[in-house]
Amino acid sequence: MTIGSDTKNKATVDENSPLLPKIQESDVKFNGASFSSSVFNLSTTIIGAGIMALPACVKKLGIVPGLTAIVLTALLTEKSIDFMIRFSRAGNISSYGSLMGDSFGKYGKSLVQICIIVNNIGCLIIYLIIIGDVISGTSSSGIHHYGILEGWFGLHWWTGRSFVIAFTTLVVVAPLVNFKRIDSLRFTSALSVGLAGVFLVIVVGISIVKIISGGIMIPRLFPIITDLASVFELFTTVPVLVTAYICHTNVHSINNELKDSTQMHRVVKTSGVLCSCVYLLSSFFGFLLFGEETLDDVLANFDIDLEIPFGLILNDIIRISYAAHLMFVFPVIFYAARINIDGLLFSSSSTRPLVVDNFRFGSITFSLVGIIFLGANFIPSIWYIFQFFGATTAICVGFIFPAAITLRDKYNISTKSDKTLSIFMIVLSVSSSVVAIYSNVYALFKKNEAY
């Protein structure tokens, strides 16, 4: 029996009590996840496409506001997760959907499940698009940036984007998404964090070498503001910043399997610090390295001779390591999408856990992989997805919903500062989201008029 299934236990409990059971009924041999594996899984949930998209944000905002925005987003993310954990423990609640349902009823539960499903599917489509772009090539602003296979072997049917995405889906993604416990992904999560580290170390090393040789100009510290439209354009970075830190969808699942659930706060803080350092360094040195030529996907910049020893080899290592990193991130994000689809569609019609119902598990997994594969083949640019999902579902999942739960305060545990911060989160999120959507729609119309 999961904590939260007993309706009699709705009273406030000790904050140090477990949020979820350590051992699931379907797997009595599982003794619980370790602190390190939980950190790796949560960090992998955070570090996805943010590494390659945040340098473009820093280009728009400038070094000082850009790096400051990354830190502030990290702090707000940590606080919003803290709200979730505290209220989950107070109500013995086992999932994000149930947490919203506890405060706002069945419609609140369905809303958060829909947002998680839409957001995670969007993220997974982004990952496949990036993998396809990195390996097979992409075009930006009328310029073609060759991929790894194009650079090595030239243009062939098997170096094309569609084949690369299909091969990655069948050979790499399909086997990994069939694990039924998130802790089973601890080794691939550790490897994904390590690959992100490889990417970061090489980028920092290249930047330092070019600084010493005098091949890098002083980066722009502040944004270029010429009119009101340029001010609004700065808000288009908000969805990317928000999406970069979304990990709320796996918080309950990770805590569910954590051997000592009192360590969850440390898991969140450790993962937050680790990921923030990676984001700050990759954003700063990525923009420093390419300056005003930094593309929306900074990986596309690594197709030229960097004019350093072994530059072309380092380019390939960077792109291969990051593509592999995203392949290992994929199943962690997929895990939350599958759970919420099952909860939305089958919670009232089936009492069997998803992990023991092989037909239901396989059907959802197969259908979800198919949708993501089709999306990756027909959506041309990751920036459009970032803007749409980041300004809507991601901002709701990451900030608006946790703040709303805190303001609802069903168990009377919110402090005055909690409620003040929650109001600030909601106002900032809604206003930023509205301006970002307006700016993107305006830019899209201007672009169409130009044609």
Question: How many helices in DSSP terms?
Answer: 16
Q: Which fold name fills CATH's third level, the topology?
A: Amino acid/polyamine transporter I
Which percent range fits the helix content?
Answer: 55-70%
Largest sheet features: 2 strands, antiparallel
- What is the global morphology? globular
Helix-strand sequence: HHHHEEHHHHHHHHHHHH
Distance between the termini: 60 Å
By CATH reckoning, the class would read Mainly Alpha
Question: What does the model show?
Answer:
This is Amino acid transporter avt6a. By secondary structure, this protein is mainly alpha-helical. It has a single domain, classed as Amino acid/polyamine transporter I. It has 16 helices and two strands. Strands 1-2 form a two-stranded antiparallel ribbon. Helix 3 packs across helix 15 (393-408). The termini are far apart.
